[in-house]
Amino acid sequence: MKQRLLRQIPPIHELQKDEAYITLLKSGDLSDDLLTEWLQEAVAEVRSQILNEIWTEEASIKESIFTAVSARLSKHFDYTLKKVINGTGTVLHTNLGRAILSEQAIKQVIVAATSYSNLEYGLEEGARGSRHALIEDIVKEVTGAEAAMVVNNNAAAVYFVLTAFAKGREVIVSRGELVEIGGSFRVSSIMEESGAHLKEIGTTNKTHYKDYEAAISCETAMLMKVHTSNFKTIGFTSAVESKDLTKLAKEKEVILYEDLGSGALYDLSQHGIGDEPHVSEVLAQGVDLVTFSGDKLLGGPQAGIIAGSKKLIDRLKKHQLARVLRVDKMTLAALEATLKSYIDSNTALKEIPTLKMIVKSKEEIKQESEQFTSMLSKEWNSELIEDFSMVGGGTMPDVQLETWLLLLSHPNKKTQEMIEALRLGETAVVTRVKDDKIAIDFRTISSNDYDELLTRLELVKEV
């Protein structure tokens, strides 16, 4: 049996003359050498399956070989990082890339990517410049900081600050602020890696001013505050605000540093959404340094922004880690454009997709859901129910944004099968499941995606 099947495998030179091979060669605009290599791999796989008695193909051996080569060709031209339509309603969905860039940011990225730029060249001086200078003035303008610099993410910013100013010395932190965020990033672990010595004070739920005062010694380099953006402790609690620690830090000649994490530059509380601390307000309280993310509430690219004292920032710029942790030209381009939107708060709300999605009203979402429902074929069973969206990204975990969910089901298809088919399509669609139905939250879906989403839904019900 094995020998009979093995004899049916055509030699490579015959397969190369086959019309199917010629068609694949033309369709993919590939070299003959590369396609031949894939052909040899497909033949080797078929031979292995026959020898191991796992050959179960009903089609001919030749057809199976070309099917495998065709699949390899499709995979070759497919990209790993793909567009996803986010139907979950979670605005800063960490697994789906967090913030969507503004149109202004995208335009600047294209400029930076498709042409030479003054990344490290002073146009006025006609000499070598610093990439730190490109972004510093705009960060200063929107935060009120004396100076600023940017690294590749906020975890890097925390590590950088601790390494540069507290290596081998003590950093005092409240036990209630020793947070862990996504990907097992722990403040205590980062501190250990930086070479700083953690000195815990207070308890999980209560830390007092006297705890900081009593803990400071000649080995203390820094008082560190960590904004607990990804959880809330309620009940019998007490914490010391940064504004109350500024005098103590100055008296003891230690640095007061606060990691804000999410980095709000827009006051969402005016829309009744959360109470996230504003970067400029924290700096105005007298904090020496703050760090925050670029791709959370800021709504920009992944980055870690360090702002505060010019004396301290200047030391960071000269540190060897500044080169290790620096960002590229496209990140700087996107970040500058994003920050420029914040010069005026009304402009930020109009231009930053993250802000627009967070403040989108329940009524707007219902209207959009109804509009989309009217486009669906009548085979679908649909209904709208009230529910809640999340901000996401470890930001404002206690905030629930009122929304409407579109629930979809089909009489001839299982919900889980359709969910999987939507996720695995050419344009992936990620949704929620509620009451064994596809649940779509239009808070995070652009009207530009309606046609594509409609096409995907119509396809999955036919599979």
Automatic annotation (TrEMBL):
It is found in: Cytoplasm. GO terms for cellular component: cytoplasm. It is an enzyme of class 2 (transferase). Its cofactor is pyridoxal 5'-phosphate. Its main location: cytoplasm. GO terms for biological process: conversion of seryl-tRNAsec to selenocys-tRNAsec; selenocysteine incorporation. SUPFAM superfamilies: PLP-dependent transferases. Keywords: Cytoplasm, Protein biosynthesis, Pyridoxal phosphate, Selenium, Transferase. Signal peptide: none annotated. The modification N6-(pyridoxal phosphate)lysine is found at K296. One of its GO terms (molecular function) is L-seryl-tRNA(Sec) selenium transferase activity. Pathway: Aminoacyl-tRNA biosynthesis; selenocysteinyl-tRNA(Sec) biosynthesis; selenocysteinyl-tRNA(Sec) from L-seryl-tRNA(Sec) (bacterial route): step 1/1. Belongs to the SelA family. This is L-seryl-tRNA(Sec) selenium transferase.
